[in-house]
Amino acid sequence: MNRAVLNSMTEAEQRLVAETAREAMSDLDEEELLDLHARIRRARSKYVSKYRRAASGAVVKRGGRGFSYPKNQRDRDKAEVFETALASVSRQVGVRATRAAAELRASRLAAARSGGARPRKATARAAAVQKPAASPRRRATKTTGGLKKDASSRAAGARRQAARDSR
User: Fold this and answer.
1) Model-level pTM?
2) 91 vs 45, 53, 85, 104, CA distance in Å?
3) 71 near 62, Cβ under 8 Å?
4) What separation in angstroms does the CA of 39 have from each of 17, 25, 50, 80, 151?
5) What mean pLDDT, rounded, does the chain reach?
6) Residues with Cβ < 8 Å from 24, sequence gap 6 or more?
7) How confident is the model at residue 70 (pLDDT cuts 50, 70, 90)?
8) CA 40 – CA 37 distance, rounded (Å)
9) Which one, of 22, 135, 31, lies nearest residue 85 by Cα?
10) Which single residue of 3, 55, 67, 153 could bond 62 by disulfide (Cβ 3.0 to 4.6 Å)?
11) CB 83: neighbour CB atoms within 10 A?
């Protein structure tokens, strides 16, 4: 990371970046890592937003994007520092989540082998009382634009519903 940018940050921002050091993150559990991830993401989003707002406002004043680019270097650099910190925290969250999933899988397999968690046999009466399983959502086929088109359609429907609900 750029030392000049780190030294220009506030104390709180420096502490936040320092929390993303490998040694500092080694003591954190998965929940604490997720909390740190959220705080870093908020800080990164703050500086990205500041940079974009200032850059868009300066385009008209300075006569183009190229002319306004160098005037907003500090926010851009801070956003980059927080992006790097966010990447390291995200990696650690992934490592911890993979480890936790492996431990959970191992404990479930051990319980299944010991016979501790056997499923009960369903009687005819219990089977009649059970509700039918919900129909699975239609999955998009792997064709060109299938996944995006379905997601876009769902989003458009949600927007239309939200507009109706706000009336």
Assistant:
1) 0.58
2) 19, 30, 10, 20
3) yes
4) 10, 14, 17, 15, 29
5) 81
6) 18
7) confident
8) 5
9) 22
10) 67
11) 14
